[in-house]
Write a structure and sequence with these properties.
Length: about 170
Amino acid sequence: MLYLLISIAAYLVPIYVANACALIFGGGTPLDLNKKLYGKPIFGKGKTIRGTLAGIVFGLIVVFLLDSLMPKWFVADYLIFGVFLVFGAVFGDIAASFLKRRIGLESGAPVLFLDQLDFVFGSLILTLPIRMPNFAEVILIFSCTFLTHKATNYIAYKLKIKKVAW
């Protein structure tokens, strides 16, 4: 059981921090510089340079802090694993925004599961060559994230950090 908890924390703490800090410190210049692709925004105004950099920087800080705490049975080099986790989280979220713009959805339009799990998909995909999570880890990572994401987004909406509750 302790093995499972450590594994889940090793995945979730950096990606949750990266995802949250991108939102909290976002704003300013859009990542796509307001450029369009086939008449549609590339990412939309919700993905900003400042938010992207904040997500990466704060996520990496957490990875560096966790590195000395991570047991070697989890992964041989947590720093490398963590870098892939953080970049996967940030770019997974950006990729989902790109996809939503391509299918004609406006920024903030809800897509169940994609909105809650995009950053997890990105992280898992990028870290697969380093470590394959087992079935229990995958189920817990997705379940915890879906529920946590719904709750924290609602709180962020109530605190006026987000414009939508999803």
